[in-house]
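Notebook entry, structure prediction.
Reason for the run: the old model in the group folder had no record of what sequence produced it. Starting over properly, with the input documented here first.
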Amino acid sequence: MAQPQRPLQVPDISKSTYSGGNTRLAYASSSMQGYRSTMEDAHATIENLDVPTNTSFFGVYDGHGGCAVARYCANHLHNKVFEHQDFSCNLPNAVRQSFFRMDEMLRNQAASKELTGYGSGSEYWRTAGSSWLRCAPCAQGPVYCGPLAEGCTACVVLIRTNEIVVGNAGDARCVLSRNGQAIALSNDHKPNFPDETQRIVAAGGSVSFSRGSHRVNNGIAVSRAIGIAYMFLGGDLSYKNDKKLRPEQQLLTCSPEIRTEQLTGDCEFLVIACDGVWDVLSNQAVVDFVRLHLNNGVELSVICESLLQEAITQDPPSMDNMSVILVRFLHSDDNRKAATSGTSNAATRTRRSNSG
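New structure, fully documented this time:
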């Protein structure tokens, strides 16, 4: 694994913010580097992934060891969901299989060049140079076999008519507000959680506590992620390349936990955010914060930026990168229409950046 980043003494609080929507929903997203020395988060917001089936897609990707895999997933995962044969008839399975497809694609030569283009660790050239023997000891030349020390967690949400489908691998999180009650639509995947520990031990690994977190083989602090094939602690220990095990049985798996929820009239909004937000704010605190601002007529984009600012001013503050997507459901009743003032331009997508 890459060495931990040295935190900035003064956080970078500039924010990159987008907003948009369609006739069914309005959304905004915002991201902030914070105290981290680089920005490793990425996200995707596609309000009209497929118009005939009324499908929207939103995803937050929290990079580890660099931004490359997170950005790669933000560019490709939603397309793989859309292209899957079960997209129209079995959306949960299409989401599940697309997570595994990401790990497969990351091993392709085309992916290696794209990863290198993001400049977060020169995955292609480093792997094809000093590290390639680990992957192909008998090969005649450099062989690329996937990112060794970069990866990302992923929490994606698809909204289709009256159904919400959530796929999560890692510790980003999706929370729904139903009449002001926070409902977690995803579970965090930490090595010390019983089901995760059971899989890790069965795969021949161990869970330890060091550097403030529970870790897989004293390495990564999450138990599910896309990418990251190896850890480096005085030698190479494979996270995902045990040929005797299926992908979902590996020490570190990209297998997503899938949850479906009915979208009813009392569903107000949902929040998808990386652990930089949830580490310092509870599910209910975030729902209360968003709801208060919505009731005061604040725009979704401003709410997202204010939420990130709230997280970084906690005591102690969030020391991680932070990204958030806020999706508000536009119901047909008159009261809901009145409540959505300030988001009437939801059919258009806008972007803004600010330094505060």
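Summary: The domain at 12-106+147-354 is CATH 3.60.40.10 (Phosphatase 2c; domain 1).
The old model has been moved to the deprecated folder.
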